[in-house]
Design goal:
Elements (H helix, E strand, L loop, with lengths): L3 H6 L13 H15 L4 E4 L14 H29 L2 E7 L14 H18 L4 E8 L2 E2 L2 H6 L8 E2 L1 H12 L9 E4 L7
Parallel strand pairs: 1-2, 2-3, 3-6, 4-5
Length: about 200
């Protein structure tokens, strides 16, 4: 997905493309971001790698790649950005996930374990950083996001089958700006008709 259109459409937007699973490049990019914009107040980890198949079908290397993207990149991102937040005594790290972080299905053997690792890592980070004034939350998106390619994959589905990107953003904004006396960690969003 190209991010250049967003940079042109939204004033004050900057783009720093990077393969988040490539640790050296991730660190270099985070340094460029901090040099350009200053220390972060809000970090959103919204990276995902998904490969599907049962445990006999998936290649072990694919599981490792998904783990690098879904969990290890969160570790590197948090380690790189948290110190400035700790020094400031405030900040938010918001991690997006999905229901695969809660349950493993047969066809999700290369995906669900990595999302579960991501969620547990986020919880561990939250328990460490919360007392230091840093809010860490995990936003489960239990839905098919309404995008052109997901509509093409599900042409027979009604509108209420999909979740709207703006609605996800609205909930992420809400969680990121909760008062210190009522922080959430596990937050879930889904359309009203979603089976769960």
């Amino acid at each position: 997905m190209a991010i250049e259109p967003a940079v042109k459409e939204v004033p004050g937007t900057h783009a720093f493309p990077v393969d988040i699973a490539d640790e050296p490049r991730l660190h270099a990019t985070l340094d460029r971001i901090t040099d350009t914009l200053g220390p972060p107040e809000l970090v959103v980890h919204n990276a995902v790698a998904a490969t599907f198949g049962n445990f006999m079908e998936v290649e072990p290397a694919v599981l490792e790649q998904n783990l690098r993207t879904n969990a290890m990149s969160l570790l590197h991102l948090a380690r790189k950005t948290a110190p400035a937040m700790i020094e400031a005594g405030r900040g938010t790290i918001l991690v997006t996930g999905n229901t695969s972080s809660w349950r493993g299905k047969a066809h999700y053997a290369a995906f669900a374990p990595t999302k579960a690792a991501q969620r547990i890592l986020a919880e561990s980070i939250a328990r460490e950083l919360g007392p230091k004034g840093i809010h860490v939350a995990y936003l489960v998106i239990d839905a098919v996001i309404d995008l052109a390619w997901t509509r093409a994959m599900h042409p027979d589905k009604p509108d209420h089958f999909f979740i709207q990107p703006d609605d996800i953003a609205e909930e992420a904004w809400h969680v990121a700006h909760q008062p210190r006396g009522s922080w959430s960690f596990n937050v879930e969003v889904r359309p009203f008709a979603e089976y769960w």
